[in-house]
Amino acid sequence: MKVMVAGHFGVGKTTMVSSISEISLLRTEETLTDAGLGIDDLAGVEQKRTTTVAMDFGRITISEDLVLYLFGTPGQERFSFLWDDLVLGAIGAVVLADTRRLKESFPCVDFFEARTTPFMVAVNCFADGKTYTPQDVQLALNLDPEVPVMLCDARDRLSVKAVLITLLQHVIQRQRQ
Predict the structure, then answer these.
(1) Residue range 139-168, pLDDT digits in tens
(2) What pLDDT was estimated at residue 25?
(3) CB count, 10 Å around CB of 67?
(4) What is the SS3 assignment for 36?
(5) At CB < 8 A and 24+ separation, what contacts does 83-89 make?
(6) Could you read off the pLDDT of 34-87 as tens digits, one per residue?
(7) Which among 37, 41, 120, 136 has the fewest CB atoms less than 10 Å away?
(8) In this structure, what DSSP letter does residue 49 have?
(9) What is the C-alpha separation between 83 and 66, in angstroms, rounded?
């Protein structure tokens, strides 16, 4: 089953997919250059040196008959046209969010809402970011009450596992309705 891991630039999508993937991550990363100055907003991620330009791809086996294929999206708006192709066949999506730049999550949320793709929000907790409750984030993003929101650490395999389990439960619940 195909799952998208989406979010804005520098939120940790590549990190999330790589921390859970049982295979070597397929990356389409390029070095940030001076050509991106004025286009890529590095506020809050000033140390970022690379960016995904097409997708990340990983895989995790849940059971003998259930394998998740994880597709991490590029975060910059100029690559957003790729999302239309990446969402095809996806059972659901994780919108990875950063409370330091929460407003940048709105286009991601809008994308999945417009396509009625089941999604959840996973807040990647950064050491220098303020911690909010999932309820605060749900309210700030104006999400429907049934959209799951949880805190996570994209670097931690167990944390990402919990996110994926929550997404799968949400997808199953939506299918039953």
Answers:
(1) 999 999 999 999 999 999 999 999 999 999
(2) 80
(3) 12
(4) helix
(5) 83/4, 83/6, 83/111, 86/4, 86/55, 87/4, 87/111, 87/112, 87/115, 87/117, 89/2
(6) 555 555 555 555 565 555 555 799 999 988 999 999 999 986 676 677 789 889
(7) 37
(8) -
(9) 24
Query: Hey, what are 144's tokens?
Result: 């429907």
Q: What whole-number distance in Å separates Cα of residue 101 and Cα of residue 88? A: 28
Could you tell me which residues come within 8 angstroms of residue 44 by beta carbon, excluding any fewer than 6 positions away? 10, 98, 100, 101
Q: Look at the alpha carbons of 15, 17, 22, 26 in this order and tell me if their dihedral is positive or negative.
A: negative
Distance CA 166, CA 174 (A): 12
CB atoms within 10 A of CB 62: 13
Look-up: residue for tokens 């070095």? 31
Name the residue with tokens 């995904």.
52
